Amino acid sequence: MASQEPSNSKFFSAFSLVAAVGAAAVAKKVLTTSWRAATGKNPPANPADPDVGMGEAVMFAAVSGTLIGVARMLAARRAADYYAKSTGHLPPQLKKDGQDASKASAPQS
Known about the structure:
The protein is mostly helical. The chain has 2 helices and no strands.
């Protein structure tokens, strides 16, 4: 089974990359459509352009960064879930992060 681990790891890496790129593309489309609906104009092509108002640039950066980040995270979680269901374990790149409060040790005083 150890000989399959590098192959599985490469598969997960490729699968999660494709999922993240797809999620980012969908998020960008949603962002463009939502921005047009909310503002009545196209989103700024380059928010760093001095001709774009500071408020608009900051808002676009915040909204687009958040939306794309969340979409990529959801895609990565979905890819990891698919991998875990297919192989019976998490991919080697992913380890539990200890966020389970019921298993956390009590703070030392």
